[in-house]
Amino acid sequence: MRKNWHSLREFETLRAVISAGSTTAAARRLGISQSAVSRSVSQLEGRIGQMLFVREQGRMQPTAEALALNENLDPLFDALSSIDGAHWKSSPQHPLRVAAPPTLAHRFLVRSVSSFLKANPDRIVSLEICTSDDLIGGIMDERFDLGLTGADMTRAGLKLIPYRLSKGVFILPKGHELTKHDVLRPEHFDGVDFVALTRRHAARSKLDQLFAEAGVSPRIVVETATSVAACEFVRNGLGVTLTNPFPLISGPDEDIVVRPFQPEIAYRTSFAVSARRPPSVTARDFMRHIRLSTPKSNLWEPA
């Protein structure tokens, strides 16, 4: 009876294509040709009788069978790592590559990274500031080990770990006419000067829908890509804005007034990690540090 042997190179190629997302990137990682990668994948598919990848929007998306096989291979590669000196295991001297969009990075993560490194002087952290789309792509391509994002999406190879829940609030300049209301509603904003986030933000679409349903039209005076910039425009008297209070609003502020909004617009902040490999020891330690050191507020709660 012929035994259905598989080569270690086929398994290495499978894991490389899953993590890199393309045969070209996998070939660079393995130091072989793209045709050799494609041939190795085809041979493995032929041996096991299963399709392992489908091409979607220029990327090689692993099938459920590929992900299951990859998970079963973890013990094999863990054993090989121990045998040859664990050269690819996580080490305190390997930088933890963290990514976050500007608001979370500047207003929260800089403090968190600083306190983590003071408590763990043997660790190294590399902080990348980017859009949530770039963050997600970097996690899937293994350019980043850990992300912090407000994006809520489902992608093959991506795992979101809920961290914080919050509800949208309106930020008003001191003395604004809407400060007389304890709770703000869509009907309050007809003709009101408004600082809006750009349309790529999910909360912008939700708010536009609520305004349309209420038959009101705020006067948009400026659009901006970040919540930090929107709040600064409010401080300078350009109008009002809706924002996620985490992490921007942590206490009283003499220049602005905060009001709840109904109906509620929910925000969720999550850790983003690869679904294809477990977080490193340093990544787990950093997530634990963030959870334990996050200040308490009545504007947000643990997820």
Overview of this protein structure:
This protein has 303 residues and is an alpha/beta fold. It folds into 3 domains: 76 residues, Orthogonal Bundle (Arc Repressor Mutant, subunit A); 105 residues, D-Maltodextrin-Binding Protein, domain 2; 96 residues, D-Maltodextrin-Binding Protein, domain 2. It has a 6-stranded mixed β-sheet with strand order 4-3-5-12-6-13, with helices on both faces. A 3-stranded antiparallel β-sheet has the order 10-7-11, covered by helices on one side. Helix 2 crosses helix 3. The mean pLDDT is 89.
Kindly summarize this structure in a few lines.
The chain has 303 residues and is an alpha/beta fold. It is elongated, with a radius of gyration of 24 Å. The chain has helices spanning 8-20, 23-30, 34-48, 64-83, 102-119, 132-140, 202-214, 227-235, 245-248, 281-293; strands at 53-56, 59-62, 96-100, 125-129, 146-149, 158-167, 169-173, 193-197, 219-224, 241-243, 256-260, 266-274, 300-302.
